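The following record pairs a protein chain with its ligand, nicotinamide-adenine-dinucleotide.
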Amino acid sequence: ERVGFAVVGLGRISLEQVLPAFAESRMARPVALVSGSQEKARVVARQYGIRDAAVHGYDRFERLQDDPAVQAVYIALPNAMHRGFTERAAAIGKHVLTEKPMATSSEDCAAMVAACAKADVRLMVAYRCQYEQVNRAAIRAAQGGTLGKLRFFQAANLQANGPGPQWRYSRTLAGGGALPDIGLYCLNAARYLSNEEPVEVFAQAFSPAGDERFREVEESMSFTLRFPSGLLAQAVSSYGAYQEKSLRLHGEGGSLMIEDAFAYQGQRLRLFRREGERGIEQVPQIHPRNQFALEIDHMARCVRDARQPHTPGEEGLQDQQIMEAIVRAAQSGRPEAIPSLSTGTGTR
Ligand code: NAD
């Protein structure tokens, strides 16, 4: 029996990636929709074989409580709305898979973790790259000693011209600009590849003068994280530069790079190692699978087996606390200490 999900919010990520990915999932199925537009939701429901009676408006979210087919909710709304729907889901005993960034403040993240713990429901943040097979192969290489001691990480998440007119330019709804939207992928990757937590950050933000879109949120954020082992991680995220989604990791004995590391598909891994006097290059052949399906299946398994997800709420909280330190560093122009993260329940 597949785990039933209610999809909350029918925007681009739901319609273009996650709903189609259920077809490639082995453990999960969509059984209900929650949307601001009944008209749109009914069309989508028909497409996915969801009953009309399982289509609800945001104000009727609590109706999901009486639907035993719904075990979990997937929240794909503007960032500032994740907390409210997570708390409402926990209150009616439903498990939560929420989109990234988890929320727009560490207070909100902590409240979400607390609400789900109190209700004894699972809480997972949709860090899809951690379920994607090429990134996973890179994690194994980085942590299996193939590269030797890790020294430098570099990543870019860039897109030109920014998103169309929308909530991502609102500080209230988005929490920030390029950093929480796309820079977060670089931050999360530095942590999952190194298996370490950063202790200090230096950062610079930039927004083009006179561009109305970037009055409230940053167009670009560049940051450098220092880790206890000495690893330095540099990342650039921007809505104003030609598309790039790559990462590199340099160790004393080798390095790796992933092209399109943060893309929806098409990741390519190259490994470079010292071997005797020469260097060798390996291009591991990895059969592609839909990372959204892998992510949903992980959540479904955690619901079925009452297990803590690999990317639990605590992991989203940690990233949020680090992003807040990045913003402080960009404002002060000085390195800022990253408060030691108290949770200790993440994956690291
Ligand atoms: P979107 O703008 O395409 O969709 C947002 C949905 O929220 C729309 O259906 C909209 O109608 C609804 N909504 C409800 N209240 C709203 C309000 N007050 N203002 C604006 N919209 C409102 O956004 P999206 O790209 O689907 O992003 C949704 C969430 O998913 C965000 O948290 C985003 O960061 C995340 N996301 C994740 C990935 C990923 O790869 N994991 C990719 C894109 C987006």
